[in-house]
Amino acid sequence: MCLRHSHILTAFSLLFTYIIGWGQTTPISKISVPQGLSNSYAVSLALDSYGNVWAATEEGLNRIDGCGVASYYSNPTAKEYALSGDALNAVLADGDRLWVGTQRDGLCAYDILTGQFQTYSHVRGDTLTIATNDVTALAPGPEPGQLWVGTYHRGVELMDKATGQFEHFNIFNYPDLPSNQIRQLLSDPTGLLYIGHYNDGLSVLNPANGQIVTYNAAGPEWQRLPGDKVTALERDPMGNIWIGTDQGLAVLNPLTHRVTPMEIPGLSTVPSSVSAIRCAGTRMYVAFELWGVYAIDTHRADEAPHLLRHGMLPGELGGSTVRDILVDDFGNVWFATWGGGVNFLSHIAPWFGQLGGTGELATQINARQTALSLACHNGQVLVGSDGNGLLVYEGDKCIDTHKRGPEDLGANYIMAINRDNQGRWWHGTYGGA
Predict the structure, then answer these.
(1) What are phi and psi of 221, to 5 degrees?
(2) Has this prediction a pTM greater than 0.85?
(3) Domain 25-353, second-level architecture
(4) Where in the chain is the domain with CATH 2.130.10.10?
């Protein structure tokens, strides 16, 4: 029998890969404990001026660069070179300095050039120190030498970086603030500070005159938030403020003070609790608790967003909840996931992708199985697997399978596939042809 070898592709002891075009699913890289991350529960991300990505976790701070991951912890015997505490809430890059908000041990400043830490803690009776050691959020101050610090139960602090002294903004000296419990902070170029409360909506503070405007779920319809727990804040290129709550997403126009509820286009059912929001040009990444991340093109209102789900496949997230999102200078997207470490989505689509279980058939190739033989015909790819029979793919979906049977294959181990000049398919198996 004359074999037309041009129809044959053979792969031994390899994960099956196929050439994909631009626009196909891009694999998401996972950086977690096996890759050197101090803890898989990442909560905050920052990009420093040297291109390093910093990840704050439930146990330690991490620097991710081209060489690997370096971790930083607390150390009572070497405080100048260590964090004040390992449980972290926030990280913010600031030139050659990094600010780290701990859950119970104050505010840390890390000098990137010297490798030294300085800790700012509450001193009882000293009103110029930070009001409490439980730091929940960080944001750039209205002036270059200032820093906004959110706390769990003592309101907002404005730090003078030169002196290390703090000015206090709380319900006692600013009665228009609805609560001292701060979850999110966002500062804008006009000097305004947007304050997300744990249970009391959103406050907008003008530090120049002390004026405060509040938004909550019980306000007038045109200023009403979906929920009172503000979980995420972001500013888009038009100056609008995106507000994530436990009951959904809304957008505030600072000029008209109008709040518009946002629905995800093309989807009828969406989980309500937003966990993170990040702007990347015309695209908004919106993460929902225990669900994944939606990528929304703000210039195409009718286009259904792309959903990044949690799963085991190359194009899926390592954790079901994303706590923070970072877009670096190249357009790469980084995700701080709860339980899945730091995930990385490249701005460059790869030439090769990995076929896995995106079809609905129960007996399909697993992302880690070995393909023994391959063939292409009429836009379909035939995959001879190592124990799972013959699988037929269109694109990245498994549309049909053939397994050992009286009128089917002689075995489930397909060593070779060929189509002869009469259009007949031949399959070489462990049980014969």
Answers:
(1) -55, -40
(2) no
(3) 7 Propeller (2.130)
(4) 25-353
